[in-house]
């Protein structure tokens, strides 16, 4: 993508002034995200421009319909709540000059843009319990804000996204074909995957059997999908809403556990460093339950600890499948990165297995904590 191309996209959105430069942000594994600056008579303003990956998201128009519905719903609530700032606490889409909130380029790429939330930062690897607490609180609050939106009004942007048994079936198929001859190198991870197959269906079965409810969930609750205020350190805005659709609160909580409780990076090669820190887990669960306590059922609460193991296993399995398939889905920055990511996820699952009892005790203690504060958001 050249500056010239980006400038063409820039003029498709209702922004005052001229294009003044852009920078590629290399955080996520899927979309292409640019920080774009405008200049309006000497006043500079920043925006986020994103090209939607339509290999991953097959129907970007429906995806954008979800996006608008979700952000409009959240914004309306923030506007009614004293002390909230709707310009910073949710994503605000820019209008496209052709109408609607996205632009389709001549080569059929889908683009969207939103206001940049300034004086904020992301956290890629949590290092302090306060960050875990804040991430948990932010995603709990996000689920709560969407709890009264009709789930059937949202499209499934990726069907069967967190369906672990289907992910497993796909893994087996890719392994059988081994088109890139990579299975030998990944023997350890493949053995781990087969050893854990029996747990794959626990949450999908609970959903299908009506034992846990279908809710509107974020489905990509990595800690780096939260913006933190530079001044207060508090979580202010949940971002990356492409997979917000009907799902289970458990996969959301589990992915928070995966990404906030270890001091190691997602692709850490020194597996001795990959372990769950109980203090981080306690803080995360405390923050999440502060918001989610009101709506979670006892059955969901019972599965919170398990959910961390299951989604960490599932994401590890997806990294492993992509490695075997030749790195076609997750962006990689070096050879074997997807295998390293898979191994790190599996090491984290092991650590969670070893700490299951202590994690259970944390949740039991939090369940016993009386008088949780009510959310400040109005429904
Ligand atoms: P991806 O799907 O690739 O993970 P994200 O939507 O998470 O893309 O955005 C990538 C990065 O862009 C974020 O980690 C964050 O640093 C930055 N970003 C996205 N939206 C905003 C925003 N509205 N304000 C400030 N920064 C943002
Ligand atoms: C992808 O877009 P990003 O980087 O936040 C992926 C998630 C994985 C995550 C693993 C649409 O998320 O499902 O959990 O990588 N998103 C999609 O880091 O597949
Ligand atoms: Mg992201």
If strands are numbered along the chain, what order do they take across the biggest sheet? 1-2-3-5-4
CATH architecture of the largest domain: Alpha-Beta Complex
Under CATH, the homologous superfamily of the largest domain reads Aminoglycoside phosphotransferase (APH), C-terminal lobe
- As residue ranges, the low-confidence spans are 374-379
How many H/I helices?
A: 13
How many separate domains make up the residues? Answer: 2
Most strands sheet: 5 strands, antiparallel
Kindly report the average pLDDT value: 96
Structural shape: globular
Q: How is the CATH topology of the largest domain named?
A: Aminoglycoside 3'-phosphotransferase, Chain: A, domain 2
Rg from Cα: 21 Å
Look at the helices and sheets and give the structural class.
Answer: alpha+beta
How far is it from the N-terminal to the C-terminal residue, by CA? 42 Å
- % residues in beta strands: 5-15%
Give the CATH level 1 class of the largest domain: Alpha Beta
Helix content: 40-55%
Q: How many DSSP-defined strands?
A: 10
**Helix-strand string:** HEEEHHEEEHHHHEEEEHHHHHH
Bound molecules: adenosine-5'-diphosphate, 2-acetamido-2-deoxy-1-O-phosphono-alpha-D-glucopyranose, magnesium ion
Explain what you see.
The protein folds into two domains: 3-118, Phosphorylase Kinase, domain 1 (2-Layer Sandwich), CATH 3.30.200.20; 129-367, Aminoglycoside 3'-phosphotransferase, Chain: A, domain 2, CATH 3.90.1200. The chain has 13 helices and ten strands. Helix 6 (187-195) crosses helix 12. It is an alpha+beta fold. The strands form three sheets. It has a five-stranded antiparallel sheet with strand order 1-2-3-5-4, covered by helices on one side. A three-stranded antiparallel sheet has the order 6-8-9. It binds adenosine-5'-diphosphate, 2-acetamido-2-deoxy-1-O-phosphono-alpha-D-glucopyranose and magnesium ion (MG). 2-acetamido-2-deoxy-1-O-phosphono-alpha-D-glucopyranose is lined by residues 28-30, 56, 220, 222, 225, 240, 243, 266, 315. The site of magnesium ion has 5 residues, from loops.
């Amino acid at each position: 993508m050249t500056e010239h191309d980006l400038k063409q996209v820039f003029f498709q959105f209702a922004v005052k002034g001229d294009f003044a430069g852009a920078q590629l942000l290399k955080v996520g594994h899927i979309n292409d995200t640019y920080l774009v600056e405008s200049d309006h008579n000497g006043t500079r303003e920043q925006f986020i421009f994103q090209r939607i990956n339509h290999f991953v998201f097959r129907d970007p128009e429906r995806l954008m319909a979800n996006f608008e519905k979700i952000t409009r719903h959240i914004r309306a609530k923030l506007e009614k709540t004293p002390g909230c700032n709707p310009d910073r606490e949710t994503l605000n889409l820019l209008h496209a000059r052709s109408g609607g909130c996205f632009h389709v380029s001549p080569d059929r790429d889908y683009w969207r843009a939103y206001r940049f939330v300034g004086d904020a930062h992301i956290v890629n690897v949590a290092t302090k319990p306060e960050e875990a607490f804040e991430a948990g609180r932010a995603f709990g609050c996000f689920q709560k804000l969407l709890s009264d939106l009709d789930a059937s009004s949202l499209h499934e942007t990726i069907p069967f996204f967190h369906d672990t048994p289907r992910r497993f079936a796909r893994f087996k198929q890719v392994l059988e074909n081994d088109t890139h001859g990579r299975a030998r190198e990944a023997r350890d991870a493949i053995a781990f995957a087969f050893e854990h197959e029996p747990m794959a269906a626990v949450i999908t079965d609970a959903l299908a059997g009506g034992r846990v409810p279908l809710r509107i969930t974020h489905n990509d609750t990595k800690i780096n999908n939260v913006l933190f205020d530079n001044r207060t350190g508090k979580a202010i805005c949940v971002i990356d809403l492409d997979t917000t659709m009907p799902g289970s609160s458990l996969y959301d909580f589990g992915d928070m556990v995966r990404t906030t409780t270890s001091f190691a990076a997602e692709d850490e090669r020194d597996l001795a460093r990959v372990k769950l820190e109980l203090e981080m887990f306690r803080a995360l669960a405390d923050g999440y339950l502060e918001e989610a306590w009101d709506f979670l059922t006892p059955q969901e609460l019972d599965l919170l600890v398990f959910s961390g193991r299951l989604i960490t296993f599932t994401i590890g399995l997806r990294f492993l499948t992509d490695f075997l398939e030749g790195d076609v889905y997750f962006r990689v920055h070096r050879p074997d990165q997807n295998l390293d990511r898979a191994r790190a996820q599996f090491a984290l699952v092991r650590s969670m297995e070893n700490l299951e009892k202590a994690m259970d005790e944390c949740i039991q203690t939090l369940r016993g904590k009386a008088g949780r504060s009510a959310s400040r958001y109005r429904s």
